[in-house]
Write a structure and sequence with these properties.
There is one protein chain. With 196 residues, the chain is of the alpha+beta class. It folds into 2 domains: 4-161, tt1808, chain A (Alpha-Beta Complex); 166-196. Helices cover 27% and strands 27% of the residues. The protein has 4 helices and 12 strands. The strands form 3 sheets. Strands 1-4-6-7-8-9 form a 6-stranded mixed sheet. Strand 10 (139-141) and strand 11 form a beta hairpin. The protein starts with a helix and ends in an 8-residue tail after the last helix. The relative contact order is 0.13.
């Protein structure tokens, strides 16, 4: 783990997707969890720990690792790496090649929190092709049917209609603000909300 910021960024992505898809049982998402992908099915070789990844069409349950050969040969559908000075070269080079050529991950994204560079690729005929950005600079994930975009300096998941997907904490804060606004309206009408 690179830093607290790195950890919080991973948490934002994981928590917001899990909250957004809270009624779905057909996906798995995690971060900094080891993916084992050895063709010889050995955990001592060929493994990576992406910052954030999503696998579709699988059972939603807790895991200690993602072991491709124990998961019906399924690799992640989406991987995101958060760049840092110590990982940027590997994330843009070696990991990109592994995700393309070995794991065949349909979509790969990276985000640089310092420069706010957001880059994404989708696999076409076995090769990663650069995704085009939308007008606000977001990248569409066809796998997730959501955008990745930068909001207040963080990489966020955004719905097709442009709504930033909140984390559970943000959702609770929004609900609290709605309750306070309603209470204020009642007070303005001479009603004590605490007496209801």
């Amino acid at each position: 783990m690179e830093s607290d910021w790195h950890r919080k960024q991973m948490q934002v992505l994981i928590e917001s997707l899990e909250s957004h898809w809270r009624d779905r049982q057909d996906f798995y998402c995690s971060g900094n969890l080891t993916i084992y992908y050895s063709l010889t099915q050995r955990k001592s070789e060929d493994f990576r720990g992406p910052d954030f990844f999503v696998v579709l069409g699988c059972e939603r349950r807790e895991r200690r690792s993602w072991t491709v050969w124990q998961e019906g040969g399924r690799s992640p559908n989406v991987i995101v790496e958060i760049l840092s000075e110590s990982t940027a070269e590997i994330d843009r080079g070696l990991k990109k090649q592994i995700y393309q050529d070995v794991l065949r991950v349909p979509e790969y994204f990276w985000f640089d929190p310092k420069s706010l560079e957001l880059c994404g690729f989708h696999i076409t005929e076995g090769q990663y092709v650069l995704l085009e950005t939308s007008a606000p600079g977001w990248l569409w994930s066809a796998q997730l049917e959501l955008y990745f975009g930068i909001h207040q300096g963080r990489l966020r998941l955004i719905t097709a209609d442009g709504t930033v997907i909140p984390t559970p904490m943000e959702r609770a804060e929004q609900a609290e603000q709605r309750v306070e606004r309603l209470a204020q309206r009642l007070r303005e009408q001479g009603v004590d909300p605490n007496a209801l």
